[in-house]
Inverse folding.
């Protein structure tokens, strides 16, 4: 019985320590500046869909949260693993996103930057890459299920399709995208995640 009590206490302490560790988020003025610039550009892309004539706060909220939660998920998990992790805007990404904010552009790309991490463990690095698209996948399915509760709200379908698009783009196994890192880490996980994302994308337009 003493042993059982000790194990229970140890388990609770382990959960508490893990929670406290996850809450110790470190940032810097440089990161906040880069993230602010990137967020403003993402908002501009969202406004460009209506040619800047009409501001829908619900629509903007969907755009901004899909981007921010994706990036912060990378950061939080990497820091939980003990790694330095901060968002950095990238010049070519800012230019592409800024061009996408022009109303005349028929295709929109949101890639103002990325979270830089310093992990050498392949499994941890793979999980950090995976968690970004996974947050969009979870939010997307959340919006899709909410569309049945609020069938007359167009924002539910917008939230589902936009999060699916963000996840699918990032899951492409090319270059510096999350998909390449996940594919190199675990091809089965990549295939299952991509299949789920494609299913969400299709379902959001049905």
């Amino acid at each position: 019985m003493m042993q059982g009590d000790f194990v229970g206490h140890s388990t609770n302490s382990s959960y508490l320590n893990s929670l406290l560790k996850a809450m110790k988020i470190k940032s810097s003025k440089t990161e906040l500046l880069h993230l602010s610039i990137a967020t403003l550009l993402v908002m501009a892309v969202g406004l460009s869909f209506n040619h800047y004539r009409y501001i829908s706060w619900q629509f903007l909220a969907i755009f901004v949260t899909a981007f921010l939660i994706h990036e912060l998920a990378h950061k939080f998990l990497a820091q939980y693993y003990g790694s330095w992790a901060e968002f950095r805007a990238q010049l070519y990404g800012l230019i592409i996103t800024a061009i996408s904010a022009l109303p005349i552009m028929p295709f929109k790309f949101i890639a103002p930057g990325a979270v830089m991490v310093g992990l050498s463990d392949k499994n941890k690095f793979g999980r950090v890459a995976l968690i970004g698209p996974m947050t969009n996948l979870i939010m997307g399915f959340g919006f899709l299920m909410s569309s049945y509760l609020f069938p007359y709200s167009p924002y539910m379908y917008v939230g589902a399709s936009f999060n699916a698009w963000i996840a699918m783009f990032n899951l492409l196994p090319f270059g510096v995208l999350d998909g390449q890192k996940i594919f190199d880490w675990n091809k089965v996980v990549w295939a299952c995640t991509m299949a789920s994302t494609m299913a969400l994308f299709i379902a959001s337009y049905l």
About this structure: Residues 2-7 have pLDDT under 50 and may be disordered. Strands lie at 85-89, 113-117.
